[in-house]
Design brief:
Chain lengths: 296, 407, 334
């Protein structure tokens, strides 16, 4: 033992912080997708948790029915979920853009019920096991804790995806169109850019991120129809805290809150589930637009 | 205004529309048939240990009577309580009030079972509990018409808890399922551990159906306890054992896992490679003698899996219930309950089992060890029975139970 | 823009009629009164025809939906966290009756008061934002209540508070008798409904509608709109609590189901299906949804999928709901 920090063994402190970072990786990926969609469509995608679950299920089905392994699933599952997103956007969501944004929330809520209900009906609520890929089995002894390789991989993968998405939106020409279309779709359309297609692709990209998070989660959390249903509310709170529509806000808040949750588990485990919501209430009182948001 | 009238009329029409079945059921005597309601988790984390298998076992019991009793048919219906106390107690209430159900069977998940026990006590309906674990069901929450069959938390604590302390596992940390069952199992096991000279250094409560046990496992690791007691069941036990191996909890050799409630279905799901050498307490093992093997073979042919103690217990309890109806000549709840308590339980599940006034069926329990892959001779050859725990040792006496019923 | 951009025209067209009724109280039997009497007679006779527990469930949810509708239908605020009020009142009532041994009327009162207080806190936080932000904030806050209910010792986590005695109302009516229980629930429902009717038809209700249609204009007219919205929020939370406390007595149980976000979604559906912004709509919606769930539970059809499909259909093509649609059809004929 290396002594204690604030009366807490460092083993527990660093261990929980690391676990918090892993959870934060999922928060960041999911809230990133929500933020991208909200920025472009002004729709809060309630089905995001269900699509995350779908990503995990698709990879499980690929493995058990077709024998397609983890690495291909990492590519295929987000594509399939993204395609599903295209269908949803084209057939359902696009009919609501002229109405109040709340209808988008209600519609996607209904969709979440359908998707979750269907998987639940088919596969029951108990989790289906998904094996950790061989290359990532085992773990590292970090001294203060034993870190399974796979969980380390999740953190790295999530960081890479979040960073490259942020760069793509902030630094590339495509990203510039996207941001412009968010501000003034009519003007961008006048420049000869197909805004409806851009909207569709944005939605597809956002839900594909959820699908990707699902694949990453499958070996950790087991594949269960309800895996997204409580997670999504936490992610909503993350988005509210970060500031709706802010890409950077979503990512940073995602990781930050994951770490904070980990910290709470060390000092006052009972509060770890509600700490995110308490912070949301405090942030709203001080800065109603969220940490990184602008008043609209 | 007319709109409101119409809306009102629509509501009235709707209310009348819903009349049919409710009306037809009222005033019907339950004596026309014996209706057995198997109420359990059919899709969730406890579906494998009870689920449809419990219904199959109940049907096998009914078939022994030719599906008829006192010249009237036996009907078996099922429902899924989804592990929610409100759904469970509503279903039970509706079954008894509307559908003329005479006996409710199984009900895993102690929280749901406690809620259903409230209903059956009020309605004086027989309640045969195989799935739930908490010893409170025959303790402070006992009912004159409630029967607790294959096991309970106290028997598990006596079996597994004492055995592990004897082997030197004298400091414990619990990862506990955060509801009635987990709390009681932790309390009962703690009592046995302390009685045997061990100590409990801490515990953490994990919600039912937890997907990620890593932070709880980390707390267990940091506690430095020799034994990490898993006071959970079904899917939760499977997940926590798997993740413990992922996080190298037992690798250092300083800590050991103790699954306090492990069903045959859990071992089957984990595989012998992961589950080997776990010590567990069970009320039934299919490969114990010729009788159990014969019955289990029949069960396997219909269900495709070997029976857990919950499923075998469902058969035994329903069979005993039907025998009591035959003896009493009625299906009136309190009369049948009294008859059931008079008669000894003798079948492939229990030999000379007896029922205490609080509804506890006292029978022998078995301490078992999960075989290594190399020891297993074929599919479902999972346990080596280490010791038979006499019923009197495993279960609390009526006086100890804290039940306030007249003796 | 508000959820009522569609119904806006309808509401303003209706306004003169409402005003006329307020100024010249008509006497005798209007069709509306006949309708109300028929419904009332139906409700009084219902327990002789139907399973009373089912009816009581419908009434509790009908009141819950009416309370929710007060906020969305007349205030234009979509709360996605109303289960928090419904559920916490259930817990407080159950605890007060079971542990403190209070009579049912005091238990329900205490539960309702707790919800009112919670409404004040939530309202104070959430009212700062509108539209979609408001919905998400209420949702997140109610999830916090869910976790509290999961972890606080007095709520008993997954088990909930069980075996709540129904007790004797006012020391006179033994609620263990299904009929006496039913008429108590009916009375609670009628009181709640009367309060909502009164609120909607009062000047307060008119201001609320004005805010819904055009908040800046209401501000420029000198109304302190945040005050009005907060009062509406607290009133709505209080009545949702009344429904939740009553349900706890009926079912003798308070459990996590009542505080989940799925429950918040369910009350949204009831209101949407029945017709937002109509008085009878939520009642119809609640009766339909509860009946449907009862019916589906006996079949192998997955309940959430059916509910989800109704949700999607309502949002896409049936935004006025049943009562709204009937009103609109009749409105055209006039």
């Amino acid at each position: 033992m290396m002594g204690t920090i604030f009366g807490i063994p460092p083993q527990a402190l660093f261990g929980q912080l690391l676990l918090g970072l892993i959870n934060g990786s999922f928060y960041a990926l999911l809230s990133l997708g929500l933020a991208v969609i909200f920025g472009m469509l002004n729709v809060i995608n309630f089905a995001h948790g269900a699509l995350y679950m779908m990503g995990a299920f698709v990879s499980w089905l690929l493995l058990t029915k077709l024998g397609i392994g983890y690495w291909w699933a990492l590519l295929l599952a987000p594509l399939i979920v993204g395609l599903f997103g295209v269908v949803l956007e084209k057939t359902l969501l696009s009919r609501l853009y002229k109405l109040d944004h709340l209808y988008g929330l209600l519609l996607t809520f209904g969709l979440a019920l359908i998707v979750e209900g269907a998987f639940r009906h088919q596969y029951g609520v108990s989790g289906q096991p998904y094996p950790i890929p061989d290359a990532l089995k085992g773990g590292q002894n970090l001294g203060f804790m034993f870190l399974p390789n796979y969980r380390g991989w999740v953190v790295v993968a999530s960081l890479v995806v979040c960073l490259s998405t942020w760069i793509a939106i902030e630094k590339t020409k495509l990203g510039a169109y996207l941001r412009a279309a968010t501000e003034n779709p009519v003007l961008v359309q006048a420049f000869g850019i197909n805004v409806p297609r851009m909207v569709t692709l944005t939605y597809a990209f956002g839900v594909a991120l959820a699908g990707l998070a699902g694949v990453l989660a499958a070996p950790i959390y087991q594949v269960s129809p309800l895996m997204g249903s409580n997670l999504i509310i936490v992610v909503f709170a993350v988005v509210v805290i970060g500031g709706m529509g802010s890409i950077l806000g979503a990512v940073l808040t995602g990781y930050g809150l994951g770490l904070l949750e980990g910290l709470t588990k060390v000092f006052y485990p009972e509060a770890s589930n509600i700490v995110v919501f308490v912070i949301m209430a405090v942030v709203l009182m001080i800065k109603p637009a969220g940490l990184f948001g602008r008043e609209r | 205004m007319i709109a409101r009238l119409l809306a009102g009329a629509a509501l009235a029409a709707l209310t009348i529309g819903a009349t049919g079945p409710a009306n037809a059921q009222q005033g019907k005597l339950s004596g026309d048939m014996v209706k057995v309601g198997v109420l359990n988790d059919r899709s969730g984390l406890y579906a494998d240990l009870g689920g449809e298998g419990s219904a199959v076992a109940a049907r096998m019991a009914a078939e022994e009577f030719g599906n008829k009793i006192l010249g009237k048919p036996i009907q078996i219906i099922t429902a899924d309580h989804q592990n929610k106390p409100d759904i469970g107690s509503n279903l039970a209430r509706q079954w008894i009030d509307q559908d003329g159900v005479d006996v409710i069977v199984d009900v895993p998940n102690s929280g749901v079972a406690l809620a259903v026990q409230e209903v059956t006590r009020e309605k004086k309906t027989i309640f045969l509990m195989e799935g739930p674990a908490t010893s409170r069901l025959t303790g402070d929450a006992c009912s004159p018409t409630g029967f607790h069959w294959p096991y309970d938390t106290r028997a598990l604590a006596v079996g597994t808890g004492q055995a592990i302390v004897k082997e030197g596992g004298d400091s414990w940390f619990f990862i506990t399922a955060d509801y009635a069952f987990g709390h009681q199992l932790e309390a009962d096991t703690s009592a046995q551990v302390k009685k045997a000279g061990g100590k409990v250094v801490g515990s953490v409560k994990a919600p039912l159906n937890t997907a990620d046990f890593s932070s709880f496992l980390l707390q267990a690791q940091a506690s430095g306890a020799k034994i990490v007691g898993l006071a959970n069941a079904g899917g939760d036990t499977i997940t926590s054992i798997k993740q413990a191996s992922e996080f190298g909890l037992t690798q250092s050799g300083q800590q050991k896992l103790a699954g306090l409630l492990i069903f045959l279905s859990d071992v089957h799901a984990l595989g012998l490679q992961v589950a080997q050498d776990l010590v567990l307490t069970t009320g039934f093992y299919w490969d114990r003698n010729d009788e159990t093997r014969a019955w289990s073979k029949k069960f396997f042919d219909r269900h495709g899996k070997m029976p857990t103690m919950v499923q075998a217990g469902s058969y035994s309890a329903v069979r005993h219930y039907l025998k009591a109806i035959e003896a009493a000549g009625t299906d009136d709840g309190p009369t049948v309950a009294a008859k059931m308590k008079e008669m000894p339980v003798n079948d492939m599940f229990a030999q000379n089992g007896s029922i205490l006034p609080n509804g506890r069926m006292v029978h022998d329990m078995y301490l078992a060890r999960v075989k290594k892959p190399s020891e297993s001779k074929g599919p479902w050859d999972y346990y080596e029975i280490l010791r038979t725990i006499p019923g009197k040792e495993a279960f609390a006496t009526f006086e100890e139970s804290g039940c306030k019923l007249p003796k | 823009m508000s959820l009522h951009s569609q119904s806006g025209g309808r509401a303003s067209a209706k306004a003169p009629r409402t005003a006329a009724r307020v100024s010249v109280p008509d006497k005798g039997l209007t069709p509306a009164r006949i309708g109300a009497l028929v419904v009332l007679a139906g409700l009084l006779a219902a327990p002789f025809l139907l399973y009373p527990v089912f009816l009581m469930k419908v009434l509790c949810f009908a009141l819950f939906a009416c309370a929710f509708n007060l906020l969305i239908g007349f205030g234009g605020l979509l709360s996605f966290g109303h289960a928090a009020f419904f559920g916490s009142a259930a817990y407080v009532t159950a605890h007060a009756v079971k542990v403190w041994g209070l009579p049912p009327e005091l238990g329900i009162l205490l539960g309702t008061a707790a919800s009112a207080f919670l409404g004040l806190v939530f309202g104070g936080i959430a009212i700062r934002r509108q539209g979609i932000y408001f919905a998400m904030i209420t949702l997140a806050l109610s999830q916090m209540v869910f976790f509290l209910a999961l972890q606080l010792p007095f709520t008993h986590g997954e088990d909930g508070i069980q075996g709540v005695p129904r007790g004797v109302l006012f020391g006179m009516f033994d609620l263990n008798n299904p009929m006496e229980m039913y008429y108590t629930v009916l009375a609670v429902f009628l009181i709640g409904f009367a309060i909502i009717w009164r609120a909607v038809h009062s000047p307060f209700g008119q201001v609320l509608k004005a805010i819904r249609e055009n908040e800046p204009r209401a501000v420029s007219l000198g109304y302190r709109t945040d005050r009005y919205k907060l009062v509406a929020f607290v009133l709505s939370a209080t009545l949702a609590g009344l429904a939740g406390g009553t349900k706890a007595i009926v079912f003798q149980l308070a459990s996590l189901t009542d505080v989940t976000w799925q429950m918040s979604g369910e009350v949204v559906l009831m209101t949407l299906l029945g017709g937002m912004g109509t008085l009878s709509g939520p009642v119809i919606g609640a009766a339909l949804v509860v009946t449907l769930e009862n019916y589906l539970a006996a079949t192998s059809l997955p309940v959430p999928v059916v509910i989800g499909c109704i949700f999607v259909v309502c949002v896409l093509v049936f935004r006025r709901g049943i009562a709204g649609e009937i009103q609109a059809r009749l409105g055209k004929k006039h």
